[in-house]
Amino acid sequence: MSSPTRRPPQPEWLAALERRRSVSAAGLHAPGPDPEETCRLLAIAARVPDHAMLVPWRFILIEGAARGEVGALLAEAYRARNPQMPPEKREKFAGIMSRLFPAPLAVIVVSRPVGGTMIPEFEQELSAGAVCMNLLTGARALGFDAIWVTGWAASDAEARRILGLGEGERVAGILHVGTAAETPADRPRPDVEALTTRWAPPE
Predict the structure, then answer these.
(1) Where along the sequence do coiled-coil regions lie (predicted)?
(2) Do residues 107 and 132 make contact, with C-beta atoms less than 8 angstroms apart?
(3) Which tens digits make up the pLDDT trace of 39-63?
């Protein structure tokens, strides 16, 4: 049997991955993905490792007028859930909730581990995280900018209900996708060499 032939490197892919960085949600504007591009982006997101093909995740899209509608509901929920907070502070954060979806498209990646299988729940949650990362790189490949966030709306039970999550589901990420007027300067990155060891037999 002959040895396999290595595929040639893809310099453009590598350069794009090496330059990828997030853009704040507030800095994302139209244009965003059109319906065909959104479908393609979700198909890219779904091409992730998924032990036993359980598909332990799903998508919720927020776009158009729904962005303001869900923001208003989240703002009201924040006020109701935080009655003890000083009014000024409460209104400040309620205002943030009302403007939570400024980008043309938000994709909520919902983690929904499948019970009764041999696949650990942790592995299934990692698969949902991989979906989020594929969304980020896919958005860049399509010519858009994006950011992966969570926050109060992802963790509060009433907020999750408003977003459309059911029992046993969690928000793996809220992915905002659009076009940035300018991409911010890169941030410091980890020292990969300092984080890397090579296995040796235990002493």
Answers:
(1) none
(2) no
(3) 999 999 999 999 999 999 999 999 9
